[in-house]
Amino acid sequence: MFRKLLVILLTVPTAITAACNDGPTAPAPASSAQLSGSAAASATSLPRVQTALAGGRQDVVVNMLDACDPDSFNAVLGPGSCVRSGGVKFEQFIAQLTRLGFAAPWRFAPQNSNVRVGQTFVATNKGGEVHTFTEVDEFGGGIVPSLNQLAHLSTVAPECTALDPDDFVAPGGVYREEAGQVGTSKFQCCIHPWMRLEASVSDR
């Protein structure tokens, strides 16, 4: 067990660094000013769907949350990997993933919603790590193989293999996606693939 955890600890940094910081277009960590007012993730409470009136329409507010501890995450993953205050130490994060297949504080809030065609999801990164809010046909793994393994996800969501630089949302950043058609829409983080939202989209 210790050997397996050691291998994971050694491979996760490389995978996440390659996934999030590859090339000159990778998002830069947010400054402390950008993070002012960000909320720490709670593993027990699930906020209701919120809407905000913008430009004559109601946007659906989604919070991308995590609880990374900057000292331990940055020590393993590199400076700037986590820019929030306090939280879950890296070894606890890996232990929870190993035990459960997910880390509860890393989540979208809400995780389910009812929306109308034409409304826009406004996903704000209120955590300390980079995330994505990626629409997928079916939930699956992301771009970090070691995290996929810990989350017991053997099939990678194809949409996660075709990300553009602006799909990566740095702490304090915002990503917008319009609800385009009636049915069920699914969104996940392509770095932490257990972070998911499923929306029922109607035309009224």
What is the structure about, briefly put?
This protein is of the alpha+beta class and about 200 residues long. About 20% of the residues lie in helices and about 25% in strands.
Provide structural commentary.
It is a single chain. The protein is α+β, with helices and mostly antiparallel strands and 204 residues long. The chain has a single domain (2-202), classed as Cupredoxins -  blue copper proteins (Immunoglobulin-like, Sandwich), CATH 2.60.40.420. It has helices spanning 2-21, 70-77, 90-100, 145-150, and strands spanning 50-54, 57-65, 107-109, 112-116, 120-125, 131-132, 134-136, 168-169, 174-178, 183-188, 196-202. The strands form 3 sheets. Strands 1, 2, 3, 5 and 9 form a 5-stranded mixed β-sheet that branches. The model is unreliable at 1-51 (pLDDT under 50).
Radius of gyration: 16 Å
| Structure summary, number of beta strands | 11
Q: Span from first to last CA?
A: 52 Å
What overall geometry do the principal axes of the alpha carbons give?
Answer: globular
At the fourth CATH level, what is the homologous superfamily? Cupredoxins -  blue copper proteins
Enumerate how many helices there are, as a single number: 4
Work out the oligomeric state of the chains in this entry: single chain
Q: Give the SSE string.
A: HEEHHEEEEEHEEEE
Instruction: Provide the number of structural domains.
Output: 1
Strand content: 25-35%
Unreliable stretches, pLDDT < 50, 5 or more residues? 1-51
Integer average pLDDT? 81
Q: What's the architecture in CATH terms?
A: Sandwich
Largest sheet: 5 strands, mixed
Q: What percent of the residues sit in helical stretches (DSSP H or I)?
A: 10-25%
CATH level-3 fold name: Immunoglobulin-like
Structural category is alpha+beta
Give the class-level CATH name. Mainly Beta
